[in-house]
Amino acid sequence: xxxxxxxxxxxxxxxxxxxxxxxxxxxxxxxxxxxxxxxxxxxxxxxxxxxxxxxxxxxxxxxxxxxxxxxxxxxxxxxxxxxxxxxxxxxxxxxxxxxxxxxxxxxxxxxxxxxxxxxxxxxxxxxxxxxxxxxxxxxxxxxxxxxxxxxxxxxxxxxxxxxxxxxxxxxxxxxxxxxxxxxxxxxxxxxxxxxxxxxxxxxxxxxxxxxxxxxxxxxxxxxxxxxxxxxxxxxxxxxxxxxxxxxxxxxxxxxxxxxxxxxxxxxxxxxxxxxxxxxxxxxxxxxxxxxxxxxxxxxxxxxxxxxxxxxxxxxxxxxxxxxxxxxxxxxxxxxxxxxxxxxxxxxxxxxxxxxxxxxxxxxxxxxxxxxxxxxxxxxxxxxxxxxxxxxxxxxxxxxxxxxxxx
Length: 406
Ligand code: GLY
Known about the structure:
Layout: H1 2-18, H2 21-24, H3 27-46, E1 56-61, E2 69-72, H4 82-94, H5 97-108, H6 123-138, H7 141-155, E3 158-159, E4 164-165, H8 172-175, E5 178-181, H9 188-196, H10 202-217, E6 228-231, E7 238-242, H11 254-271, H12 274-289, H13 313-328, H14 333-349, E8 380-381, H15 382-399
Antiparallel strand pairs: 1-2, 1-8, 3-4, 5-6, 6-7
Helix pairs in contact: 3-4, 3-15, 4-5, 4-6, 4-15, 6-7, 6-9, 9-10, 11-12, 11-13, 13-14, 13-15
Bound molecules: glycine.
């Protein structure tokens, strides 16, 4: 009898030793929550007097409000691909054919982008989150063509004399040169994908050129990033690093750093060049080192109003998703540390402090869109939800021993 009790105690100890934070996090509970909120949003969109308009995409729910503010899917609405992307992720989790139908209908509203001259660099956000996920899950050949055509359009923004894409053609005069913003790193994924899937191999070359030049000039010696790098349009020489959405030119804008962590993780995935793997760890480490206790950053790490400054849950979602991928490229302690940090981020984000719950039909509260413009401060914003559900699906795949990026 004594031996039996001892063996049971030993078994319990071994089980506890094997239980990692990654496995303790109840990912299905969080994904079920997302699915319920998606249902609430769809009910509201269908329930309007005018009926549903598939060209109107949920964008934000401002502090104190309880309904989505929707924006028309136009070439200058950079967030229009996130809601279709969320629907694809929710379909991936639930297998619900009704969600798939909704995903298809919202996605179709972005097809025009594959036939329209580039307005700016956001084409990757717009088309790869929507059509990219749609193609990954359905293999619909029409979707593939939209992505390939849009990648060619995005490539028209690449300026060989500089070596990067011009992110905001409309702002050349305002910044005094060719501007490249850190967010642009996310749009490289569509170029890499197109180069591997029947598009021009040159698309991967320009993605690498963009990543290299950004790595060289877009970061300070401590690996924090500028939001905008300005280059001489003719010579390509670096002129200055400035901000557009951060606190000051020299501050660490949380979402900018998040885009950098995510972007260089993708560039490493696509190239397997260790320079990027080394670099992204430095960019991630400075971010992790400065986080507050609950792993959700203030909107800018250098806002003097901290701890009374607003948070940016969207940055936490982007970084959680990126670190889950990055952890798989770093076996051993470092990978484990990144995975644990990502799970800590998801744990905080999934608590009552950040979940909308019954207050509104988004997933998360407390994101900051554009603080200097006093826009979308402490709000629910659609891209936070997109990267939250993406991170949850990545964690689920890891828990099931599957490749992290699906
Ligand atoms: N791409 C714009 C932003 O991160 O707010």
